[in-house]
Design brief:
Belongs to the class II aldolase/RraA-like family. Its EC number is 4.1.1.112, 4.1.3.17. This is Putative 4-hydroxy-4-methyl-2-oxoglutarate aldolase. Homotrimer. Keywords: Magnesium, Metal-binding, Methyltransferase, Transferase. The chain has one domain: Glucose Oxidase, domain 1 (3-Layer(bba) Sandwich), CATH 3.50.30.40. Helices cover about 30% and strands about 20% of the residues. It is built from seven helices and eleven strands. The chain is an alpha/beta fold. Strands 1, 2, 3, 4, 5, 6, 7, 10 and 11 form a nine-stranded mixed beta sheet that branches. The protein has a two-stranded antiparallel sheet with strand order 8-9.
């Protein structure tokens, strides 16, 4: 087997009801139940104008050589509707990995979202596209199409380890990854926290939020509270 230059055609795909339920919960709520350690680096940001605010789908992973998109093309030939294309790019930011033509084809293939740890081009067209496209920025410099690379292997994207079939959830805040094996437990916790968070928002709007924890925490950390101006301090 040619490690570093191979394509795996199959991934584990979560059951549709898992994806539908994760797509009802903001990424921030789900992330809070995972010790706040499941989000891709915020350098990877939303570049398009999706009509749906939250999207969830299984990760179809691509490991590219820096600035090369041959394996992204290979992935687009086998991607299934609702899959989320997630691309590791060795941290490179010198060449666009995708542009309008590839994004248009991905939309035709009914891709759920695209998450690139690298730049794109044709941003004028991308800003009008109605499905989620995340990238680190833009450059007119185009990619190579030489390889090597791999499809559906573990990758690093936005400083986060992602395995093929992990559940990716994307919203305007950014992107999180939920390990396939943990999905059931994470979903139960996220549903509970999301309901609690909604009640906190309502309390904040009414001025009835419980804020005593702030003083208690400051006190427990021995924060000195001084009833004076800074410039009034004297030896």
């Amino acid at each position: 087997m040619s490690v570093g230059n191979r394509v795996f055609k199959k991934i584990c795909r979560p059951k549709p009801h898992f994806l539908a339920e994760f797509a009802q919960i903001p990424c921030a709520n789900t992330a809070d139940t995972m010790s706040r350690s499941c989000a891709v680096n915020p350098r990877i940001r939303l570049m398009s104008n999706p009509s749906i605010s939250i999207v969830a789908g299984p990760a179809l992973t691509v490991k590219t050589r820096a600035g090369d998109n041959l394996m992204i093309h290979a992935a687009l030939e086998m991607i299934e509707p609702g899959d989320i294309l997630v691309v590791g790019n060795e941290g490179d930011a010198s060449r666009a990995l995708m542009g309008e033509i590839m994004f248009t084809y991905a939309r035709y293939m009914d891709v759920g979202a695209i998450v690139l740890d690298g730049p794109i081009r044709d941003v004028g067209a991308v800003r009008k596209m109605d499905f989620p496209i995340y990238a680190t920025g833009s450059t007119p410099g185009g990619p190579y199409k030489e390889g090597p690379g791999e499809v559906n292997v573990p990758i690093s994207c936005g400083n986060l380890a992602i395995n093929p079939g992990d559940i990716m959830v994307c919203d305007p805040d950014g992107v999180i990854a939920i390990p396939f094996a943990d999905a059931k437990n994470v979903l139960a916790n996220a549903r509970e926290l999301s309901a609690l968070d909604h009640s906190k928002v309502e309390a904040a709007a009414k001025g009835t939020a419980k804020r005593q924890w702030v003083g208690e925490t400051l006190n427990s950390k021995n924060v000195e509270i001084i009833d004076a101006r800074y410039d009034e301090q004297r030896d």
